[in-house]
Design brief:
By secondary structure, the chain is an all-alpha fold. 71% of the residues lie in helices and 1% in strands.
């Protein structure tokens, strides 16, 4: 991986957007003395995240690496850095309705978490990736704990202990990786003959990151955590945090195991099939709304890791097919944030806890705009045409076919067909039944607007399809 190693103040300049976010985060903590309102803190956080994204884009030192290739600034990393900043911006306003106290801690933590996500987007060193990823995990443990009921605490505890177990597996895997390669730096790693140590590292790291990405059978924590946490936090964990895990997995297994891509192919092809099928089949029998969306999120993780199966089957990271597959994953990531994150945020429009599918009965009569917006997001998750989700799945399945994995494309398409049944079941309740209670919905505009925005972005993101050739050009940056 080529680049220029620089030092001193220039390096500080490269990281100035992140330093800015850190300063704002500590300033927000200080604002607790002034008893600043939650809404003001949310707008400060939103604005600072937007400024950092623009700042990062304007000063971006493309083609530069620092710290001996530990951090590599390229267009691929920039794309995902901005996507993950957007995922944090996406929940700043909706989250104010789930915060009972200590909102300054919530928003400061969200900024600190974003710093870790951006560092991970540019990192090509296993230790730096691990530290950045764990900083995000620790921050999300704090975010998940907001809420004082038993379900909040139960979900957070399960998330924490599962995350700790995953961390142990990742550290074991990293140790065996170093034993074989004698380096933690993925950027300077040269291909070597597959060895028992590398195979052991592969297995340990798949288990560790499988927990983080909620891949079957390392997924159960996600069901309980998404169900138990506040809706906006569920949106962030299921969307932004999952996109981060996806980026780290791409780097770890397609760059770090470039000499062992066929094993990567077999393992991720099997895991993708199991994850898609289990998530979709389990969602069919769910009556709890958030658990249904959580199982749907597991299925979506199965679609995402199809990218690794395609690249692994090709066995050549310089192949045009590999670039198309990674570009499809890039498009899927941005569409996923709006359609899945927006689905969880829509739960704010229904009063009460432990929401059931039947609680959405008659939503179209009480708030037709919300019902239509939520339906758009559900249709996008199912892959129905004219939505961002359709184009995301189309491009992903196209890469499978171009890679010669037509049989895997058929399985993925069948799984999408299964998902239509439980998504349409929700839509039927919203449009085909009468409300169960008169006051079950939050009908204030402050609850409706996030749903409208999510639905609009879910459709509008389809426009990015015209830039898909550009994404194909950016995608090889993953491997360099």
């Amino acid at each position: 991986m080529s680049g220029i190693t620089t030092g001193g103040l220039t390096v500080l300049g490269y990281f100035s957007p992140l330093i800015f976010l850190g300063i704002v985060g500590f300033a927000i903590l200080g604002l607790s003395i002034l008893k600043t309102s939650k809404k003001a803190l949310s707008w400060i956080t939103f604005a600072s995240l937007g400024i950092s994204a623009i700042w990062l884009y304007l000063i971006f030192p493309n083609g530069t690496s620092v710290f001996d290739g530990t951090i590599v600034f390229n267009q691929f990393g920039l794309y995902f850095a901005i996507v993950m900043i957007i995922s944090a911006m996406f929940i700043t306003y909706p989250s104010i309705y789930g915060l009972k106290a200590k909102s300054e801690i919530f928003y400061a933590t969200l900024l600190f978490v974003t710093i870790g996500m951006v560092v991970a987007a540019f990192s090509y060193n296993l230790i730096t990736l691990f530290i950045a990823f764990e900083s995000v995990s620790i921050g999300t443990y704090v975010l998940a704990s907001f809420g004082k009921n038993k379900r909040n605490l139960e979900g957070t505890v399960k998330y924490f202990f599962t995350g700790t177990i995953a961390t142990a597996f990742i550290l074991f895997g990293a140790s065996f990786f170093y034993i074989d390669t004698h380096t933690f730096n993925l950027a300077v790693l040269t291909a070597s003959t597959p060895s028992p140590e590398l195979t052991i590292a592969l297995i340990f790291l798949i288990v560790g990151f499988g927990f983080k990405l909620a891949i079957f059978p390392m997924h159960q924590w996600a069901i309980d955590t998404y169900d138990g946490t506040e809706n906006s936090v569920s949106a962030f964990l299921s969307a932004g945090s999952k996109v981060l895990a996806f980026v780290v997995v791409l780097k770890m297994f397609l760059v770090g195991f470039s000499s062992d891509l066929h094993e990567v192919y077999y393992l991720f092809a099997v895991l993708a099939i199991l994850t898609m099928t289990y998530g979709n089949v389990s969602a069919l029998s769910q009556n709890n709304m958030k658990r249904l969306l959580a199982y749907s999120s597991v299925a979506q993780a199965g679609y995402l890791i199809l990218v690794l199966a395609v690249v692994g089957s090709v066995g050549n990271t310089n192949s045009p097919v590999a670039a198309v597959a990674v570009a499809a994953g890039m498009f899927y990531a941005i569409a996923y944030i709006f359609m899945k994150g927006g689905a969880f945020i829509t739960m704010n429009t229904v009063k009460g806890d432990n929401l059931q599918v039947s609680d959405l009965s008659g939503l179209a009569k009480k708030a037709p705009g919300v019902a239509v917006g939520f339906s758009i997001m559900l249709l996008a998750l199912a892959g129905i045409p004219l939505t961002g989700g359709f184009f995301a799945k189309y491009l992903l399945f196209l890469s499978l076919i171009e890679g010669g994995l037509w049989w895997l494309a058929v399985i993925a398409i069948l799984n999408s067909a299964i998902s239509v049944f439980y998504y349409f079941r929700i839509i039927l309740y919203m449009f085909g039944k009468d409300p169960q209670k008169d006051d079950i919905f939050n009908l204030e505009n402050s609850f409706k607007i996030p749903v409208y925005v999510s639905a609009f972005l879910t459709v509008a993101i389809s426009v990015l399809v015209i830039w898909f050739p550009t994404m194909i050009g950016i995608a090889p940056g993953l491997f360099r």
